[in-house]
């Protein structure tokens, strides 16, 4: 009886329990009819209307998989949108059209809220009425609860719930629902991606590769503005920080435009490194800079540190070994009208530190006065290798140390799989520098790259005894 949604007050009636204990189902229905007028809130509908927009072959019961495509799509590798069509039976309430909005407001928690699906449809049997589609998960047994019934009573609406055959198609399902229905049961579903302008970048797992072209097309269909989907096919090359990729769906156009922290960049995603997940970190470092500061960007890429620093009126020296990154760096400096404030280089990181950086520091640091507030920052964003470059700072300069305030501040990035990542990156930095950084550094966790793999930034001022080599008397 609970399954049919009858009132709990009736089931608690001792007389009814005694009468129904050994009675057949038809007889129980008669008892219900007998008691319906004597127990408040109980009503019995002997016959319910079914409103249908499909042939009467649909099974007349609630389909709990309202948000699942047709089961026949399992294993599909070539997208067939027509195969996702299905019809499910959902509860509907007949309402006079002039009070539909009031009913919708009163029953808001129980009304179907599925994006893309109509919540109010025509009544095929009465042009003066409408059918309000209810959420089958909120009305699982086609019977309204006491609160809903009381709300309808205030509006003089009969609380009888009918069954409506709701047609669902490919357009009505979300990307993760489609992929969960297609991929083998129990397998992980990937619907997330990195967006780089019009490009969606995936990192598919081995079991997802047979479905990669379908996955790509689904992402294009469900994400306006995405016109190309790519999958990384190898790990990032540590020399030029790019990777091979396969176009899964859409146009084969990998030159794109992105906007980060209100600054526009253009790039060829197949030839340079760009990670939209680093937007917050780029902003964090630039926020530390003041107008007039000097920034040395050792692994500059296309300019996500260099360009905003230059727009902040800092003097910038930016370098990248990858010729493509260097060219796009120049392009983005011009695009953002800071090309006169950025000196760009296409060199190995060590050569950049031993050349332009040493030359500039040798010239600027001796001229610093205590009251001057210019700061020097060195950003080293090559997490796979940057810590190994720190040994370049050993005796990089010759002469008497400048004031402590003028010593350059280094922001060096690294990956760690250690159980204590901060300790790990500090110890590795100390090994490269040949000195302790206890009490002289801070570490910041940038992001989780993979399970048990963190990306961190260690920040410190280069100790004077590391940076300077005193001349012999």
UniProtKB/TrEMBL annotation:
What Gene Ontology molecular function terms does this protein carry?
tRNA (guanine(37)-N1)-methyltransferase activity
**What is catalyzed by this enzyme?**
guanosine(37) in tRNA + S-adenosyl-L-methionine = N(1)-methylguanosine(37) in tRNA + S-adenosyl-L-homocysteine + H(+)
Domain named SAM-dependent methyltransferase TRM5/TYW2-type: residues: 193-464
Q: Which GO terms describe its biological process?
A: mitochondrial tRNA methylation; tRNA N1-guanine methylation
Q: What InterPro entries does UniProt report for this protein, alphabetically?
A: MeTrfase_TRM5/TYW2 (IPR030382), SAM-dependent_MTases_sf (IPR029063), TRM5-TYW2-like_MTfase (IPR056743), TRM5/TYW2-like_N (IPR056744), tRNA_Gua_MeTrfase_euk (IPR025792)
Q: Which SUPFAM superfamilies match?
A: S-adenosyl-L-methionine-dependent methyltransferases
Q: Which Pfam families match?
A: TRM5-TYW2_MTfase, TYW2_N_2
Q: Keyword annotations for this protein?
A: Cytoplasm, Methyltransferase, Mitochondrion, Nucleus, S-adenosyl-L-methionine, Transferase, tRNA processing
User: What domain of life is recorded for the organism?
Assistant: Eukaryota
- List the GO cellular component terms: mitochondrial matrix
PANTHER family given for it?
TRNA (GUANINE(37)-N1)-METHYLTRANSFERASE, TRNA METHYLTRANSFERASE
**What HAMAP family does the record tag this protein with?**
TRM5
The family this protein is said to belong to: Belongs to the class I-like SAM-binding methyltransferase superfamily. TRM5/TYW2 family.
Q: What does the function comment of this entry state? A: Involved in mitochondrial tRNA methylation. Specifically methylates the N1 position of guanosine-37 in various tRNAs. Methylation is not dependent on the nature of the nucleoside 5' of the target nucleoside. This is the first step in the biosynthesis of wybutosine (yW), a modified base adjacent to the anticodon of tRNAs and required for accurate decoding.
**Would you tell me the protein name for this molecule?**
TRM5 methyltransferase
This protein's species is Smithornis capensis
Q: What is the lineage of its organism?
A: Eukaryota, Metazoa, Chordata, Craniata, Vertebrata
Q: Which gene encodes it?
A: Trmt5
């Amino acid at each position: 009886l609970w399954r049919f949604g009858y009132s709990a007050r009736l089931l608690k009636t001792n007389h009814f329990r005694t009468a129904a204990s050994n009675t057949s189902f038809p007889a129980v229905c008669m008892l219900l009819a007998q008691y319906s007028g004597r127990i408040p809130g109980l009503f019995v509908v002997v016959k319910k209307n079914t409103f249908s927009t499909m042939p009467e072959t649909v099974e007349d019961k609630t389909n709990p998989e309202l948000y699942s495509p047709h089961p026949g799509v399992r294993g599909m590798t070539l997208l067939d949108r027509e195969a996702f069509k299905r019809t499910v039976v959902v509860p509907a309430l007949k309402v006079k059209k002039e009070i539909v909005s009031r009913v919708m407001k009163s029953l808001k928690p129980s009304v179907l809220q599925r994006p893309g699906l109509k919540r109010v449809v025509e009544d095929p049997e009465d042009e003066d009425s409408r059918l309000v589609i209810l959420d089958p998960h909120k009305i699982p047994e086609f019977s309204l609860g006491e609160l809903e019934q009381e709300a309808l009573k205030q509006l003089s609406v009969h609380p009888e719930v009918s069954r409506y055959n709701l047609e669902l198609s490919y357009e009505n399902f979300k990307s993760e629902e489609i992929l969960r229905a297609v991929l083998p049961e129990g397998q992980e579903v990937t619907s997330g991606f990195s967006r780089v302008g019009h490009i969606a970048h995936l990192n598919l797992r081995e079991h997802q590769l047979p479905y990669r072209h379908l996955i790509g097309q689904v992402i294009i269909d469900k994400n306006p503005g995405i016109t190309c989907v790519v999958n990384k096919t190898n790990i990032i090359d540590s020399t030029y920080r790019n990777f091979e990729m396969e176009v899964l769906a859409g146009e084969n156009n990998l030159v794109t435009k992105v906007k980060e922290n209100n600054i526009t960049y253009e790039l060829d995603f197949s030839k340079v490194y760009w990670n939209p997940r680093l937007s917050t970190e780029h902003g964090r470092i630039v926020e530390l800079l003041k107008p007039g500061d000097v920034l040395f960007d050792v692994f500059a890429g296309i300019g996500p540190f260099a360009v905003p620093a230059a727009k902040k009126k800092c003097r910038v020296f930016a370098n990248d070994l990858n010729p493509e990154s260097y060219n796009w760096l120049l392009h983005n400096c011009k695009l953002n009208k800071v090309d006169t404030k950025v000196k760009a280089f296409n060199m190995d990181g060590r050569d950049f530190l031993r050349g332009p950086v040493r030359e500039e520091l040798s010239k600027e640091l001796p001229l610093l006065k205590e009251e001057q507030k210019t700061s020097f920052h060195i950003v080293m964003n090559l997490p796979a290798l940057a810590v190994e470059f720190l040994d370049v700072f050993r005796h990089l300069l010759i002469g008497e140390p400048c004031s402590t305030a003028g010593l350059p501040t280094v922001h060096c990035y690294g990956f760690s799989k250690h159980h204590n990542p901060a300790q790990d990156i500090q110890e590795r930095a100390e090994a490269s520098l040949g000195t302790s950084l206890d009490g002289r550094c801070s570490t910041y966790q940038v992001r989780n790259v993979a399970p048990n793999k963190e990306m961190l930034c260690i920040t410190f001022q280069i100790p004077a005894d590391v940076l300077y080599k005193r001349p012999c008397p």
